[in-house]
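Hey, I'm writing a tutorial for new members on how sequence and structure tokens pair up, and I'd like a real worked example in the thread rather than a made-up one. If someone can provide the structure for the chain below, I'll link this post from the tutorial.
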Amino acid sequence: MLTSTKAIVLSKIRYNDHDLIIKCYTQQNGIVSYLLKSILKSKKKNSKIAYFQLLSQLQLETDYKTNRSLQFVKEIKPNYIYTSLHTNIMKSTVAMFIAEVLSYALKEEEKNELLYNYIETSLIWFDTNNEVYSNFHLLFLLNLTKYLGFFPDDTKIDAPYFNILEGEFQYEFKGKYSVFNENLTLLKMLLGTTFDALNTIEINGKQRQAFLSFILAYFELHLGSFKKPKSLKIFNDVFN
């Protein structure tokens, strides 16, 4: 069936000598992998290689069949062209990290337009914002939990602990599952802010790295198939 959909590139791998497999999160069908035959061979098609950078936003016309593990693309064009995400070394490092997190976190082969729109608009904000954006990934991941089903319950946000297993603020200490001190303070601050207000929150490199470790542990606990991104060390080296 001929299908038109917006798509965000999460990963790409070379297949045989001249083919490419890209995994995308699509607006219409969730996670989909596409086989691009001879894309690395034809000089004419090679002009489109830049389309498949991590987190690129595309418009695809595909011959989609539900029983096929690799789909085929009829037509490709950019849906949004980034101005800085792939050229700014700091932003491209964040893009590499976020793409890997999304690859592990998103597994559903079904439509979730709210989730797609959140990722799409967040990436556009990140691309167009050239001021303070060093904490973007923290708020992005925290808000992502809302669409994955384990957004923190802030009913008791004044409590002194956050239980990462139960996903709620609590008044009792529950050992290894209880988050407190600086991570708790940052969690409360981020829960009450927006991307546009991120520049009002001051976080140093050590705090940023500690909070990222906390949020990734939260993902691992609530997503059985999630694993710590391989790009984490590179990310911390460049960004902190």
